[in-house]
């Protein structure tokens, strides 16, 4: 994502593919790592002997295909919940074509969450988070646009024009219901459980919205922790 990270990413799918391959070799290679790719070249690097799964936060179809070829998991962010299964099919089909078992690729949505007795506070935090991502990156805009093309375009245009308030106000309730977990504790726990119960989802990563107060951060983590949700 050149626009969000401030550097040019030539051929992003190939860069993702080689990055995942290299990280796997660095973590758990049998021998010193030598790699001659289109994007990266490495010579005689010692592996760390620390086998860990490598996940990719791929949004577009080409990057999802790269994820299916080499990654251990997929971290969708800003892809509407109702589009997760459809978007995962690209990952699964590519994995199968590459001789991999798609069921071994973990799907873990990265979801902005805000829980508070003050619904306005929680909603404001999520609106700010979504406006920032949709407005700052074409990739995130395109992901949200899978279900909300007009709204995503309005948010991105307002953000680019420097009208942050207009961008935040353009984040609709429908968008938040598909891209985030937000509300009072009981409401948020129900939303979490519904998302976690989807067939395509293996687990959910709770991320705290940008700029959330410390109190909101702590309440969100406390209310969505497993012990709270199991009560």
Describe how the helices and strands are arranged.
Layout: H1 2-5, H2 12-28, E1 33-36, E2 41-45, E3 55-56, H3 61-70, E4 73-74, H4 84-97, E5 106-107, E6 110-115, H5 119-136, H6 138-144, H7 149-160, H8 164-169, H9 173-179, E7 181-183, H10 185-196, E8 205-207, H11 214-224, H12 226-229
Parallel strand pairs: 3-4, 4-5, 6-7, 6-8
Antiparallel strand pairs: 1-2
Please give a structural write-up.
The structure is a single chain. The protein has 231 residues and is mainly alpha-helical. The chain folds into two domains: 2-107, no CATH class; 110-229, no CATH class. Helix content is 53%, strand content 12%. The protein has twelve helices and eight strands. It has helices at residues 2-5, 12-28, 61-70, 84-97, 119-136, 138-144, 149-160, 164-169, 173-179, 185-196, 214-224, 226-229, and strands at 33-36, 41-45, 55-56, 73-74, 106-107, 110-115, 181-183, 205-207. The strands form three sheets. It has a three-stranded parallel β-sheet with strand order 3-4-5, covered by helices on one side. α5 packs across α6, α5 packs across α7 (149-160) and α6 (138-144) runs antiparallel to α7. The chain is globular and about 55 Å long. The relative contact order is 0.13. The mean pLDDT is 94.
Task: Give the structure's gist in a few sentences.
This protein is mainly alpha-helical and 231 residues long.
């Amino acid at each position: 994502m050149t626009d969000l990270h401030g550097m040019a990413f030539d051929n992003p799918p190939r860069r993702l593919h080689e990055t995942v391959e290299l990280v796997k070799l660095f973590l758990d290679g049998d021998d010193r790592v030598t790699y001659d790719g289109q994007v990266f070249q490495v010579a005689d690097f010692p592996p760390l002997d620390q086998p860990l799964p490598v996940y990719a936060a791929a949004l577009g179809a080409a990057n999802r295909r790269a994820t299916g070829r080499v990654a251990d998991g997929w971290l969708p962010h800003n892809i509407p919940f109702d589009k997760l299964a459809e978007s995962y099919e690209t990952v699964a089909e590519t994995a199968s074509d590459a001789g991999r078992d798609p069921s071994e690729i973990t799907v873990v949505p990265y979801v902005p969450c805000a829980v508070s007795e003050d619904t306005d506070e929680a909603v404001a935090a999520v609106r700010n988070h979504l406006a920032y991502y949709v407005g700052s990156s074409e990739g995130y805009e395109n992901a949200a646009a899978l279900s909300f093309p007009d709204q995503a375009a309005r948010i991105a245009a307002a953000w680019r024009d420097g009208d942050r308030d207009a961008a935040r106000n353009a984040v609709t309730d429908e968008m938040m219901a598909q891209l985030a977990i937000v509300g009072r504790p009981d409401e948020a726990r129900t939303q979490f459980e519904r998302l976690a119960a989807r067939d395509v989802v293996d687990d959910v990563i709770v991320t705290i919205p940008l700029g959330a107060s410390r109190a909101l951060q702590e309440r969100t983590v406390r209310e969505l922790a497993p012990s709270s949700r199991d009560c």
